[in-house]
Amino acid sequence: MMTLDNVYKASYALKGVIRKTDIIHAPKLRPDAQIYLKTENLQITGSFKVRGSYYKMSKLSEEEKARGVIACSAGNHAQGVALSAKKNGIKAVICLPDGAPISKVEATKSYGAEVCLVEGVYDDAYKKALQLRDEKGYTFIHPFNDEDVIAGQGTIALEIAEQLPDLDAVIVPIGGGGLIAGVAYTIKMLNPNVKVYGVQASGAPSMANSVRDGKIETLESVSTIADGIAVKCPGDLTYELCRKYVDNIVTVTDDEISAAILALMEQHKLVTEGAGAVAVAAAMFGKVDIAGKKVVCLLSGGNIDVTILSRVIKRGLLMSGRSAQLMIELVDKPGQLKNVSRIIADLGGNVTSVHHERANEGSDVNGCYLRIILETRNFEHIEQIKKALSDFGFKLL
């Protein structure tokens, strides 16, 4: 059984180990609500996961510590377990899916853990970890379905309640459910009036589906840029706590996640991974009813792989109207490109790429196509440019 006393014990055990992360006001993310950011992306190891893993390991017996620990992870739990094991002088073996970002794999190794890459996704790594536990006698540190791990994550809610006592709601990412289970339970025990909203990626809605249908369900596959919450099946403990204490669970698309990552970088100089930005995505795109409310979005992690960051930014620019592609049909005669450029420049657009090609069979013999990529301010600006081009006589495809 979860108890508030265990969450307070976890908070005491974590003193001097973790960072009490700041809450930052973020007025630009949504003007009709008071948005605050709980910056667990700035936690040691770059994620909240160290809270639960360290508290769990602090409660192991000397015999369990001597046998060593094993864990499975999409990346952040791996680093939390590796660091916690190092601080406690325990051998750690971590099973990671082979698709985990290289940066997370290398970071896990840097904390002294032995890494075992497993073909597939998180759930495949989980099966391998259980197999090695049985073969070698390791102590298994579950990433979410464990009361002590959940209590460790619940310490975030103690900090939030102290930092923002007049809070109306908190928005929390969900993968396997350990984070939201701890936060929701603790928040509701402290103040039942605070709303708790969970967010999953639309390509991995395991908890959302399970709570909606009233039973634990396993997805056939998961697909999302938010690798930290790409979990096929929630835990039984986390499912029950979510069902009881979470007010609503919503989903966000990869495009919405990308836009949230971009907004956090531009407006607040904060780098988050996909999983770390889903709460902000839900707030930005109106997935939860928070108008006029004081709300905390929990940024769960900042360990984004720099190799995909440029792709995420590109998608974020498109999603927020900061970038656009126009296809224009022209008559192939002098001055056409000059007129297109002038119209765009006069309206403050910035052309970054131009591709000019002759028309295909069946079209006007003097026809050609112009494909332009340009930087814009927002969707209204894009429509303004399109209208000006159309009014001049250009045909947009």
Structural summary, described in words:
The mean pLDDT is 92. The strands form three sheets. This protein has a six-stranded mixed beta sheet, with helices on both faces. The chain has a four-stranded parallel beta sheet with strand order 5-4-3-6, with helices on both faces. It has a four-stranded antiparallel beta sheet with strand order 12-13-11-14. The protein contains 15 helices and 14 strands. Helix content is 45%, strand content 20%. The radius of gyration is 24 Å and the shape is elongated. With 397 residues, the chain is of the alpha/beta class.
Percent of sequence in beta strands? 15-25%
Q: DSSP helix count?
A: 15
Topology, number of strands: 14
Q: Kindly report how far apart the N and C termini lie.
A: 61 Å
Structural class: alpha/beta
Low-pLDDT regions: none
Strand order of the largest sheet: 1-2-10-7-8-9
Helix fraction by DSSP (H/I, runs of at least 4): 40-55%
Shape: elongated
Question: What is the H/E string?
Answer: HEEHHEHEHEHEHEHEHHEHHEHEHEEHE
- C-alpha Rg (nearest Å): 24 Å
Q: How confident overall, as mean pLDDT? A: 92
Main beta-sheet annotation: 6 strands, mixed
Q: How do the helices and strands line up, and which of them pair or pack?
A:
Layout: H1 4-14, E1 23-25, E2 34-39, H2 49-58, H3 62-67, E3 69-72, H4 76-88, E4 92-97, H5 102-110, E5 114-118, H6 122-136, E6 139-140, H7 147-163, E7 169-173, H8 178-190, E8 195-201, H9 206-213, H10 236-245, E9 248-252, H11 254-268, H12 274-284, E10 294-299, H13 306-319, E11 323-331, H14 336-346, E12 350-358, E13 367-375, H15 379-392, E14 395-396
